[in-house]
């Protein structure tokens, strides 16, 4: 098998932030055998492996990644009855539109989310109160620790809000997935997709270099959250009262941080939970802006924000 491994490949073009230094080694996998072959190659050389999907939920450090980055492009999928059988590298958007064509409902909320189904499963991607965990029946996983292929049912995936067993343990690489959807009405499915795209466009617009929401929304039930104090200081926060979490963007916005810039990194004017690369931002600028936001939010409200984006190549 020709693994076609390149050296010193700049990662910025493979991320939606368009930021990041070189991977010491880089390869693209387009089949399960290639993916496993690449992992074995790295392990024989005692190199760490990073599974890269669409690069839309990560910030890669300026010094890059000292190991093998595998861009997972494994493209096969099949829709049968209510199930989608898909390899991890298939774009999430493709599955949304193909399932709509088959009059299957369950993924419409994800319209407009970039990246692969593997990446979406890793971070339990979600929007508008829904997430991918509701549609995942099984995952076929390669465990880098013991070189075995395992099958995880939904429970074993350990899904939580923007979290999963895969996010906690990068040694678990998703090879393929089985999704289960429901039969729906073509007109309604297409309407929901249009609606999701419209809301997304209104909330953060298109074409910005970002990785989506930088911080997780905040659970009301967390020990450090004083609901009475917060809703007293910010009465409009009550609009999130019926939800399990309140918006990190709302909190950041309340500190007047929209438009705040460090170098070419800026808090998006339209959406305070997005940081964008205006043109030539370095990872360092993004990290400094993240630090500044966390410090201000903690100082003013005593809230510890948690990153939703994943940091790659930072020690
Ligand atoms: C404009 C914009 C809007 C966004 N809106 C949303 C939103 O509404 N909701 C939301 O949840 N997210 C959103 N995101 C973030 C991001 O698009 C999603 O989290 C997406 O699902 C990540 O997929 P990816 O393939 O790009 O993952 P990557 O960024 O490539 O990787 C993310 C993580 O997944 C891991 N990973 C990738 N493939 C695999 C695999 N096969 N096996 C194991 N681990 C793997 C990576 O190692 C990494 O840790 C948005 C991003 C942008 C830029």
Automatic annotation (TrEMBL):
Q: Which Pfam families match?
A: FAD_binding_4, MurB_C
Q: Which UniProt keywords apply?
A: Cell cycle, Cell division, Cell shape, Cell wall biogenesis/degradation, Cytoplasm, FAD, Flavoprotein, NADP, Oxidoreductase, Peptidoglycan synthesis
Q: In which pathway does it act?
A: Cell wall biogenesis; peptidoglycan biosynthesis
| GO CC terms of this entry | cytosol
Cofactor needs: FAD
Indicate yes or no for the key word Oxidoreductase.
yes
According to its UniProt record, which residues of this chain constitute the active site?
Answer: 162, 213, 308
What is the reaction catalyzed? UDP-N-acetyl-alpha-D-muramate + NADP(+) = UDP-N-acetyl-3-O-(1-carboxyvinyl)-alpha-D-glucosamine + NADPH + H(+)
Task: Give the UniProt record's GO annotations in the biological process aspect.
Answer: cell division; cell wall organization; peptidoglycan biosynthetic process; regulation of cell shape
DNA damage is among the record's keywords? no
Q: Any idea of its EC number?
A: 1.3.1.98
Q: Which residues form the FAD-binding PCMH-type domain?
A: 18-184
| Compartmental location | Cytoplasm
Q: Which GO terms describe its molecular function?
A: FAD binding; UDP-N-acetylmuramate dehydrogenase activity
* PANTHER family from the UniProt entry: UDP-N-ACETYLENOLPYRUVOYLGLUCOSAMINE REDUCTASE (PTHR21071:SF4)
What is the annotated role of this protein in its UniProt record?
Answer: Cell wall formation.
What family does this belong to? Belongs to the MurB family.
Q: What is this protein called?
A: UDP-N-acetylenolpyruvoylglucosamine reductase
Q: Could you read off the lineage of the organism from its UniProt record?
A: Bacteria, Candidatus Tagaibacteriota
């Amino acid at each position: 098998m020709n693994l076609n491994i390149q050296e010193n490949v700049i990662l910025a073009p493979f991320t939606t932030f368009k930021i990041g230094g070189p991977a010491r080694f880089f390869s693209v996998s387009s089949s399960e055998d290639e993916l496993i072959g690449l992992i074995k190659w790295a392990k024989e050389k005692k190199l760490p492996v990073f599974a890269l999907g669409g690069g839309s939920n990560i910030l890669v450090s300026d010094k890059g990644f000292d190991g093998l980055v595998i861009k997972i492009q494994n493209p096969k999928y099949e829709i049968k009855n209510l199930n989608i059988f898909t390899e991890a590298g298939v774009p999430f958007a493709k599955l949304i539109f193909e399932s709509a064509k088959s009059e299957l409902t369950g993924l419409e909320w994800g319209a407009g989310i970039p990246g692969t189904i593997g990446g979406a499963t890793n971070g339990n991607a979600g929007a508008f109160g829904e997430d991918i965990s509701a549609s995942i029946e099984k995952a076929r996983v390669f465990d880098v620790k013991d070189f075995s292929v395992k099958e995880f049912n939904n429970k074993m995936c350990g899904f939580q809000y923007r979290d999963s067993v895969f996010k906690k343990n990068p040694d678990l690489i998703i090879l393929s997935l089985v999704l289960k959807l429901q039969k729906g009405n073509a007109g309604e499915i297409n309407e929901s997709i249009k609606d999701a795209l419209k809301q997304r466009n209104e909330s953060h617009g298109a074409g910005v270099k970002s990785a989506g929401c930088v911080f997780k929304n905040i659970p009301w039930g967390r020990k450090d959250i004083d609901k009475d104090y917060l809703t007293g200081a910010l009465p409009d926060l009550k609009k999130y009262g019926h939800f399990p979490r309140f918006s990190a963007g709302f909190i950041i916005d309340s500190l007047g941080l929209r438009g705040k810039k460090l170098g070419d990194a800026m808090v998006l004017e339209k959406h305070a939970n997005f940081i964008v690369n205006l043109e030539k931002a370095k990872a360092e600028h993004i990290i400094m802006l993240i630090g500044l936001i966390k410090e201000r939010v903690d100082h003013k409200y005593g809230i510890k924000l948690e990153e939703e984006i994943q940091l790659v190549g930072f020690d």
